[in-house]
Amino acid sequence: MITGPVFPPLMQGIHAAGADPFDAACAEARSGCDAGTILYDVSPELLRAAIVFAPEVPLSKAAVMLPLTGIAVQNALGALGPSELPVHLEWGGAIRVNGATCGRLRAATEDSTPDTEPGWLVTGFELVFARPTVEGGATPGETDLQSEGCGGLEPTDFLESWSRHLLNWINRWEDDGMGPVHREWAGLAHGMGEDITILGRTGTFLGLDEMLGLLLRTDDTTMLLPLTDLLETRP
């Protein structure tokens, strides 16, 4: 009898049972769990999930798993949510629905040195499904899926869909390289062409390099912020 989410082949789930799935995934990764292990915690208000990777490429390339995790979130909402629901991704990790923050992405590894092949990499997301104590308009910069017309969306169904979309994008990345990933993410990017503050720096978000690093224009200088700058280090 199936009692939890059903994941694609090569992925397996562990219920985090109220613990932070991201922290639990990092602990599982350090203990040597199988790649493709998904830690999750599901409630009617909040879905949290994280997945363990065992990269066979330098971290500068493996860090693409962070934007792929976000692309899969958007694709799953596009498949299961209302048609034309606007979902965008901030380079720094925020998930935006209809312009307001509705969750976040994050990633961690044991060593953030870009040219090192890490022993493990964990990416994860949080997605707010409902905020029962918040009245409409009380927090204009934040939202939840119920308020955006997704009241019938079950968190477990979303989690399963996200895992399938993530696997599909990993396969596309492995087969076709960064081109399709770059095109997809650039179309979802929030704030491109606008002034932003990211990682303590303020400037104009000019675009993305070929590895999805952020090009930030400050005064007369354009700097590159690589994806590895977003990774937490968990020795």
Q: Overall 3D geometry?
A: globular
CATH class of the largest domain: Alpha Beta
CATH superfamily of the largest domain: Bira Bifunctional Protein, Domain 2
Specify Rg, calculated over alpha carbons.
Answer: 17 Å
Q: Say how many strands there are.
A: 12
Specify the structural class. Answer: alpha+beta
Helix content: 25-40%
Description:
The structure is a single chain. The chain has 235 residues and is α+β, with helices and mostly antiparallel strands. The protein has helices at 21-30, 59-62, 65-80, 155-176, 178-188, and strands at 12-15, 37-42, 46-53, 87-89, 94-97, 100-109, 121-128, 195-198, 201-208, 214-218, 221-225, 232-233. A hairpin with a 5-residue loop joins strand 9 (201-208) and strand 10 (214-218). Helix 3 crosses helix 4 and helix 3 (65-80) crosses helix 5. The longest helix has 22 residues, at 155-176. The radius of gyration is 17 Å and the shape is globular.
Write the layout of secondary structure elements.
Blueprint: E1 12-15, H1 21-30, E2 37-42, E3 46-53, H2 59-62, H3 65-80, E4 87-89, E5 94-97, E6 100-109, E7 121-128, H4 155-176, H5 178-188, E8 195-198, E9 201-208, E10 214-218, E11 221-225, E12 232-233
Parallel strand pairs: 1-2, 6-12
Antiparallel strand pairs: 2-3, 3-7, 4-5, 5-6, 6-7, 8-9, 9-10, 10-11
Helix pairs in contact: 3-4, 3-5, 4-5
